[in-house]
Amino acid sequence: MSEIKSTMELVLERAARLGRATDEEMHVDALLHRGRQLGAEFLDHAEEKPESLAGHLTKAPEAERGTLRRGMLATMLHNLFLPRDESGKKRVERALAGLLALHGGARQAAALCAQLAQLASRYEEHRKQIQEQLKEQLRMQLQQSLAQERGIKVDASKIDPALDPRFAQEWGRIEAELNSQYGQALEQCRSQLFALSGV
Prior knowledge:
Pfam families: DUF6657. Helix content is 78%, strand content 0%.
């Protein structure tokens, strides 16, 4: 199983290699770096079509294409995560589109990308559902507590349970469990994509 490395680990490895690298190794490292940059530019520019990644490869000399592709694939793979908001969701979608384009729509890659997209969608739905259930449960508790302690009947819709410290504490615990469950499935798919991509 491939190890997913942090940016800092990659930088430190690169610095160590450059200290004792040959000209050819430095050229390969520069190509990988350029491929990662092209991948990051693709992710950052929503108007850029996934096919543009292949376009970058065809413009490069044939001997450099494989290394540039590995750099682009590494960037796409490092941008597969459990999205917590709309911008994260869009970034994951872009990374999946980039992976598909770089794999030329290969069936196995397409199946894994579809599985990851479905996983991200289920995670988002499950996360929202559980968060709303927790809010509703805490809202009812707060309403009952106010009624018992102060004899006040409060409209439940006017109670914001997210302001209660218990919500943050309980939501943190639940979210960690949810991230662990979905994170395992994500890592399994991502590892398969790493192996398939040869990164």
